[in-house]
Amino acid sequence: MAEDKAQRRWLARQACTRALSGHLPMTAAQRLESFRSGGFDLDALPDAYGDGPVRDLETRVAELLGKPAAAFFPSGTMAQQVALRLWADRSGSNAVAMHPLSHLEVHEREGYVHLTGLRPVWVTREPRQPTPDEVAKLDERFGTLTVELPLREPGFLLPASFAELTEVVAAARARGAFVHFDGARLWESTVHLGQDLATIAGLADSVYVSFYKTLGGISGSALAGPADFIAEARAWRHRYGGNIFQQWPAIYAAMSGLDTVLPQLDSFVAHAQTVAAALSALPGVRVHPNPPHTHQFQIWVEGTAAALDEANLALAETEQVWFIGGWRDQTPTGLAMAEVTILQGALSWSAEQVTEVARKVFQR
């Protein structure tokens, strides 16, 4: 039944002509055609164990982030575990200061604990970014501080300002710790923080970025940092099984995202404010945070996730319009929550159109 529903959802989304939240899916043929139309030479030699286009992407990402070197990883989970392992070796401490709602803790089955022997130290349990004072006053030693930018689970939250982020990093350094940024969504953080990618990444010793969460890639990530650190990370990437024979589809998709999506992110973040304001004006609808820190935010409404997903799917099947999917029940509140992602397809939606479609879905 779950597979049938997933297929129904994919087919409905694929047939849509408009989408408020997220990417509309592409078939393999459509993806290949996007490579051709994007100027990629599909008759050229593919990569082999990390050479050719893989090295080209690594060089480009290192330059964007202002780091001496970068390494491509098939997954962010692998990249982050390698990074934290290396900083633990260099600091002499297996304690990693982090947030309990971080991706490392919530979505990676505690791989950093079971595979690397690290242990967490919670900076704060509050559903927000940690403060400089909390980092400074942690009551035990830690070798690495990891900061997720933005922190997804409580609403894609960023520090209040770049100055506050700078103070958080300084507090960790004063404790003799290294700093790693989980920047899976760092790309869209520049507007709120008021700095370019290289300036933000320059605060940290290492940074991980994703190529599919925002940029619309197939898979893959990059880890950037000092040259000797990245050289050692490549060795651990091999040990973890990440030195894959050919990865050109993921590489081309990542390059395409850097070419076409990254330059538009400022407009996505700006339009998220318009969409959030329109949704929050509806009775019984809450948006968090309001205004959004990035082009992603949470929407909370009364009802069940199953009913809301079905209403959204019915609209997609009858009108070829995708509103917001992926609802989750928030027991015991009686509310359901979904994450909204504003991308190119949403830019044509006016506040009035957002309101009109939202009412159609909620009335269902």
TrEMBL record:
GO biological process: one example: glycine biosynthetic process
Location of the Aromatic amino acid beta-eliminating lyase/threonine aldolase domain: 48-295
Annotated Gene3D superfamilies: Aspartate Aminotransferase, domain 1, Type I PLP-dependent aspartate aminotransferase-like (Major domain)
One annotated GO molecular function: L-allo-threonine aldolase activity
Gene Ontology CC terms: cytosol
Signal peptide: none
Keywords from the named record: Pyridoxal phosphate
Co-factor(s): pyridoxal 5'-phosphate
Pfam families in alphabetical order: Beta_elim_lyase
Protein family: Belongs to the threonine aldolase family.
Protein name: Threonine aldolase
